[in-house]
Every structure is written in structure tokens, then in C-alpha cells.
Amino acid sequence: MRIPCLPDGGLWPYIRAVIAPDPLLVFDRATLRQRRERAAGRWDQRAFLKREIASRLVERLGDVRRVFPLALDLGCHGDEIATTLGGRPAVERLIRSDLALAFAGRARGPAVVADEEFLPFAPKSFDLVMSAMALHWVNDLPGTLIQIARVLKPDGLFLGAMLGGSTLWQLRQALAAAESEIEGGLSPRISPFADLRDAAGLLQRAGFALPVSDSETIAVEYADALALMRDIGGMGEGNLVVERRRGLARRATLLRAAQIYAERFTAPSGRIVASFEVLFLHGWAPHASQPKPLAPGSAARRLADALGTDEVSAGEKVERSPR
Length: 323
What we know:
The structure is a single chain. This protein is an alpha/beta fold. The chain contains 11 helices and 7 strands. The chain has helices at residues 12-19, 29-39, 48-61, 80-85, 101-106, 141-151, 169-183, 196-205, 225-234, 251-264, 303-307; strands at residues 68-74, 91-98, 111-113, 126-132, 152-163, 209-222, 272-284.
């Protein structure tokens, strides 16, 4: 099938933006691409978190009574969204995209290699865009959300799931304590992610109608903190902060961090607990048929009547009897 992409030359404004250095870049996306290429080789052993997040995202799609003729899976990894969708009639055709060629090559349907920061798709191409575990690595999240809104048809739906700011807070604490104790200072060890309080506002800024955001926490148990760190690395989800300390961490620091983690965050099972906060984003491309808020003063009934109480005008003092 033909994938709706921009015409030749349509990416030049984005290419120029890449060439120009940006002092506000937070994440090293060149390293992200390399790590995801490596992660694809043994992905089946590391895909449990993506499977769970994709399942919860598709479950939200079940609340929408509509058929979407053409959908985009932005950041497909091992095709978990497609697998979860199965043969559901809600999505007729699904295009996959991923930053890594190795992941795009795993897809069991049409797929392209695409950077989430510079989407190559033509405007008003898709009825639905879904994204699980990809957008937390985007440097300009508002800009990417604007691009997603642009490639949606009017009244098209965006459903996204990304790791939130409370993800791995236990590991953050343990690494900070160990590094301060052994190395006498701190460096960025875990990447910063968006907070829930900002999510709905970002959707609104990007032009989405009826924006909704919520969060869930997925708790995962590991034998120890070193096993957790190996898993994070195997998923390609390790620290990507541009200002991170280069080179391998000191073995003594990691061992001390594992010890602190076990002392503070061991479950009754005897295993350590790791928390992954997942932010779910839900927004619609604007359309005239969507409900809109009433204009001020246009209500047909007074709130006081609905509540069965007396209306008091602003500035009027109400005397209350002493208790």
C-alpha cells in the first residue's frame, strides 16, 4: 500500500533544524537510535513493559465507538500495538514507524523508519495515531504533538503513552545516595521525563480538542538493582541526557547503589520493586462536530436552582449563625 509521506523536499525545513545546533537539547537521540538498533536483536526477552503499556493503551481505544480506516503506530518496537489490536475491526489498516531500522524490519505490516521529532507524513493522512513508549525521548514534545495533530484528519484521534517523571524514582534515590557517598558529587543518571500536570496542557497547546491525560504506575519486581539496570539497558531505555557523565560508572558506585536499593525498597517477597509511571494522552484533531463549551451567560438554568439553594451575588455578605 502507498504510505502517505511528504513530497520530495518536504523534509528540508526539518533537516535545516537538525543541522543548526540547539543549546536546549536534552536527549542524545543519535545514541537512542544506536541503542534501539541493538535492543531489537533480543527484544522478545525485554518486551514485557512495552507489551503491558500497549495493552493498556489499546484498552482505552475500546472506549471509542468508531472505526479508523488508517492508523499510525508511532514507535512500534516489536509490533506490540498491532499484536494487541489483533483482528479488532476498530482499525482497518495500520502503518508502523520506528526510529530504528531493526525494529521497523520486525513489523508484520507496512513500516517506515521515521524520527518522532521530524514526522515525514503528509498532512491529514491518518484517522488515528497511537504511540507507546516513544515520546518520552523527544526533545521538543510540544513540537512533536503539533506534528501529530497535523498528520491527523479532522476529528482524528491521538492516543499516546509515555514514561512519566516518577519513573524509577527508587533507582534515582539509590544512585544519588551512592554517588554522593563514594564519588563526592552527583551527575545525571536517569533521564528527566514530563509530569502529569503538564500533559493535558501540552495537548491543548498543540491544538488538540478535548484533551485528557491520566497516569498509572506499573510496579515490577527484580532480584536486585543490578538486574533492573541490565533490563533497562537491554530495552534501550538507559540514560540519554546530553550532559550525562561519559564512560562506565564505577563498579563500587553501582554495587553501593544496589545495596542502598535493597535496604530501602525491598518487597515482602524479598525482591526489590521498581516503579514505572505511565502518562496516557488522549486528544482529538479539531472538527466542527465536536462538543464545545457554552458561552458565558448562555446557561438555560441557574446553578442555584439545580443545587436547591439561594443565589448570592458577588460581593454580598452572607451572615452565618454561630455554631
